[in-house]
Amino acid sequence: MTKEEPKINLIRFPVMKGSFDYNPLIINLEKDANLQMAPYLKERDDRIAELEKQLLRVSLRYKKWRKAVFKRDRYTCQICGDNSGGNLCVHHIKSFALYPKHRFKITNGRTLCLKCHKETENYGFTKENGNAKRD
Predict the structure, then answer these.
(1) Residue 93: which of 129, 122, 135, 54 has the closest Cα?
(2) Within 13 Å of residue 51, how many CA atoms lie on the same side as its CB?
(3) pLDDT tens per residue, the chain (135 residues)?
(4) Count of helices and strands (H, E) across the chain
(5) Which end of the chain is more exposed for a tag (fewer CB within 10 A), N or C?
(6) How is residue 94 annotated by DSSP?
(7) Which residues of 99-123 are buried (b: 16+ CB within 10 A; e: fewer)?
(8) Closest CA to 90 of 116, 64, 70
(9) Strand residues in the chain grouped as ranges (E)
(10) Distances in Å between the alpha carbon of 37 and those of 24, 47, 122, 128?
């Protein structure tokens, strides 16, 4: 049983100046190629998103936000009261991944020690993993 070759029809669509040819077979081939490439495209998009996140966290804006939260909280963990240097971090109350508009709002940050930070409900949360806790 042989399969018949599909009939290829070129359709002309007028545009503002002149016209162009549209071939539905080419579009179908592009869709097939995109489906085959989908895992690689997602992997690339994930790498780009991770790079953007890393760049944001070393930006001047992020550093100023972090310092403002530390100053407001007097460099003290807001849960246990620890104030030892090198043990403190700034926690995003609303997730960094899910609330981009709140990333640099001082009211969305609080100073926590590493131990208390790991116990927060959204510690380690990302859009990709979809869970709030990680080991």
Answers:
(1) 122
(2) 6
(3) 556 655 554 444 444 444 444 444 444 545 555 556 666 667 777 777 778 878 888 899 999 999 999 999 999 999 999 998 789 999 999 988 888 899 999 999 999 999 999 999 888 765 555 554 443
(4) 3, 4
(5) N
(6) S
(7) eeeebbeeebbbbbbeebbeebebb
(8) 70
(9) 11-14, 19-22, 88-92, 109-113
(10) 20, 15, 32, 19
Contact present, 125 and 132 (Cβ < 8 Å)? yes
Q: Tell me if 31 sits within 8 A of 38, measured CB to CB.
A: no
Instruction: State the Cα–Cα distance between residues 126 and 122, nearest whole angstrom.
Output: 9
The total of other beta-carbon atoms located within 10 Å of residue 33's CB is: 10
What pTM value is reported for the model?
0.60
| Every domain of the chain and the residues it spans | 19-53, 59-118
At position 40, the amino acid (one-letter code) is Y
Phi, psi (degrees; rounded to nearest 5) at 90: -105, 130
Give per-residue burial for 48-60: e unless 16+ CB within 10 Å, then b. Answer: eeeeeeeeeeeee
Which residues on neighbouring strands pair with residue 92, listed in sequence order? 109
The one-letter amino acid code at 98 reads: L
